[in-house]
């Protein structure tokens, strides 16, 4: 991938992960103000914003192992976001339509980042 393509990819992913975090925050703030709603709200906000923050950190990391580590955290947090979205649906805190869009996005982000990590790991071994 050429440098300009890599830069464009990174910027697109920064925006995409940030938009995902914002979408999760917006939906979380609509949860009922009770013990369960508050807990799921905090968990989803924490992990979804962590996806964006760790991806962003990977873009400025100084070494390949650090990039891989930050991307790995973002993958784990995207997967956890998907879990909390599913849980919120199970508890009827969000609609099926709302959950489908967020779940699809968290899954796609994780898949893209897994492929990026694999590519970096292969480069490191070459």
TrEMBL record:
InterPro entries noted in UniProt: 23S_rRNA-intervening_sequence, 23S_rRNA_IVS_sf
Gene3D superfamilies: 23S rRNA-intervening sequence
Pfam families hit by this protein: 23S_rRNA_IVP
UniProt-listed NCBIfam families: four helix bundle protein
The protein, known as: Four helix bundle protein
Organism expressing this protein natively: Sunxiuqinia elliptica
Origin organism lineage: Bacteria, Pseudomonadati, Bacteroidota, Bacteroidia, Marinilabiliales
